[in-house]
Automatic annotation (TrEMBL):
It comes from the Bacteria. Keywords: Membrane, Transmembrane, Transmembrane helix. It is a multi-pass membrane protein. The chain crosses the membrane at residues 18-41, 53-73, 125-144, 150-171, 252-278. Residues 20-297 form the ABC transmembrane type-1 domain. One of its GO terms (molecular function) is ATP binding. GO terms for cellular component: plasma membrane. InterPro entries: ABC1_TM_dom, ABC1_TM_sf, P-loop_NTPase, Type_1_exporter. This is Lipase secretion B. It is found in: Cell membrane. Gene3D superfamilies: ABC transporter type 1, transmembrane domain, P-loop containing nucleotide triphosphate hydrolases.
Amino acid sequence: MIEPLGLIKNFARVRTRIFVTIAFFSSVINILMLAPSIYMLQVYDRALSSGNTTTLFMLTLLVLFMFAVMALLDYARGIVIIRLGNQFDNALSPALYTAACESNLVKHSPNAGQAISDLTVIRQFVTGPALFAVFDSIWFPVYLGVIFLFNTWLGVFSLSGACLLLALAFINEKTTRQLLNEAGGYALISNHQANSSLQSAETLHALGMTDNVKARWWRGHQQFLYCQSAASERAVLMSAVTKTVRMALQSLMLGLGCWLAILGDISPGMMIAGSILLGRALSPVEQLISMAKGYRSARLAWERVVRLTGDFPPAQESIRLPAAQGVLTVENVTVFPPGNPRQPILQNITLRVNPGEVLGIVGSQCIGEILSRQSVVRCLACRRGGCQAGWGRYLPVAEAEAGSWNRLLATGRYAFHGNPR
């Protein structure tokens, strides 16, 4: 069985050095993030108090150099993350594509490409801002510790503000999770209905069923809009509250610092630097909060990927055999229609065709005949019995090998990308 979690663990283990490099870049970047606060502290406490322009000039050159180094490291980290995302996609996409093909053979889903879209969602989340936020959040205690070094009250206020923002994020998650999950389910159903009906637009038009099918799709779409709108309204409310609290914390931090400076507990430079450090300390917290929606989408996509790869494990290793010659034998074959495992269409079918013979299968509705052909060429799995074509008994033949002797074309019109020549 394909284990996505195992593939990801193996992916991370092989690329440990890359993650160490990203962690190193993030550490240096976060250390350099202290430069504005230190610059502000030195300007107020040294350059401004002494009136020495040379000190101000050298401090400015030093902080500009730090900004340049930080920009280069941030760029390098972004490039590494992009390439890591491509490698992540290359490691998982072939297995998912195979599982999606197997799923479509069995279920005939109108949205068989959902697995590839889910992988894109997971890749964008895992190798996007989420990874930056995880590495940056490790430095939250460092920024908080520096604020505590300035003054205990400033540190307590900063810690309380971070806890308040996390509490608001938790409330937002609890109030919107159920609605967003329902909206996601309705969206998938609505998209499936739209895709299947659009693929049969000619038939619907000929039978005069377009309006009825559209009304059925519209009802599901309205349910999706209702859940999505209700969740968005709650999220907008919590976003407004969070933004207001964030701005209030920044201003109150400055006011608390001013009060402590008046009492003589800290210097004016510490007052400004503490306010800047609070903003930097809360930045990873805000990033993690803003990723809540992306996390929900990635989690749902991950659950679908795990379910798909669990239901459709990879086939056994195929055997390369010579060209098919000899007797075609079908023994006690029982086949169920796609998506209906209860009522068989073919049951206990047995036949034998010798070389050079032609066998015609006749029926009233063409359903059993089509399934018979699909079972012979292994487009459909037999619940009982099996088919063989001159080889060993029910050997797992490679798809490319089977294509050299199979001449079955599915009933329907399909188009493949390419140019006619």
